[in-house]
Amino acid sequence: MDIGEPIAGTTSQRALDERREHHEHREHQVFSLRGSDASIQTFGVRRRLALGYASTLEDRVRAFFADETGGPNVLVGALPFDTNRDTLFFQPERVIWEGVENRMTGVARSNVPLRSSSLQIVGEPDAAAYAAMVEQALARIGAGDDLRKIVLSRRLRIHASAPVDPMAIVERLACDPKVTTFLVDLSVASGAHGHRLVGATPELLVSRKGLRIASHPLAGSAARSADPEVDRRAAEDLLRSEKDRREHALVVEAVFDTLSPVCAELSAPEGIGLQSTSTMWHLGTRIEGVLKSEEHGPSAAGLAAMLHPTPAVGGHPREAALEAIRALEPHDRGFYAGAVGWTDTKGDGHWYVALRCAEIRGSRLTLHAGAGIVAGSTPDREVAETSAKFRAMLHALGIHEDGAL
Ligand SMILES: C=C(O[C@@H]1C=C(C(=O)O)C=C[C@H]1O)C(=O)O
């Protein structure tokens, strides 16, 4: 972030001072979520949320805030993809809330985080092995039981010759105004030096403000093109694709089914539409609702835990799809395809699906990308879709690679 530049909008002197201060202490930033909604950056870890395997996340969050020991009234954190794994939640020492006007977009102010000459990139599984996984998923879907969608992912392992700067990656990802960038200091839990999760997600899992909630599930994707005509056609074809609409509908139905019991009103006023990032087109449906009860309704974190994993990252039906993912994917997803966000004492908060991300450990990065497999999917197209989904992170890293990744 270039703090020497004039800042547009209504930025106060205090906000400027805070930005300068955090710039000077950028190594202490442990969590950030920055997008078109108000953004949050946090510094230091005041207290971690106890893990408590017997109680729900909602109960643990309530108990945390009931036990008043001061500090900011917010918990930030991440849910792993596998709900049996440990969540990472903590109360920060200091919080900076930023309005939308402070969002930095357009020009990458940072140096390219990596030089491709000093890189090793390995697909794990590689593209051919992933295509074979897709074949197996299709066989399971075609087997006659009610399995209809399995989201399969693959990874790129990147080994750089020097440690990468996670903040520089986030700043470059933020050049796309359509995404919400995130950074989570995973060393809070792992203790491993330089262990971070960074990414740029287009998908809102759930937000809550007072009684109002929203979710914007995505499913059904097409790569964008630099050629405007090809790009427009890709979007039109996606909007018309029966296979992608079917894949999308499963996610929307699951979100409605999960949220209906706690809502007095729930609707998708605009129906299915196109959502874009700088590299992808997606089918998206914005869902809006009003909770039955503000005080007794679930908090934003509780809602995220109810929804996760949606069929956008798991499949349908949920348990059968998760079993298939465990059987077919040779790797642990970690926090990829989990959720990142915050929740406060009032229950308000924002949670995003942790997509288009990289787990960083010093000079090693692991990128994940997945695609929904349904009847009508083909291995080649799913390989191409996952390649396209890697592009946002690769570009942020300074890698312009369209080859056989
Ligand atoms: C699984 C990913 O993305 C999800 C899967 C999509 C799809 O299958 O079309 C679209 C958006 C996301 O919900 C990913 O980016 O890795």
TrEMBL record:
Keyword Isomerase: yes
EC number: 5.4.4.2
Pfam families with a match to the protein in the record: Chorismate_bind
Chain residue ranges for the region called Disordered: 1-28
Annotated Basic and acidic residues bias: 15-28
Superkingdom classification of source: Bacteria
NCBIfam families: isochor_syn
Protein name, UniProt field: isochorismate synthase
Lineage: Bacteria, Pseudomonadati, Myxococcota, Myxococcia, Myxococcales
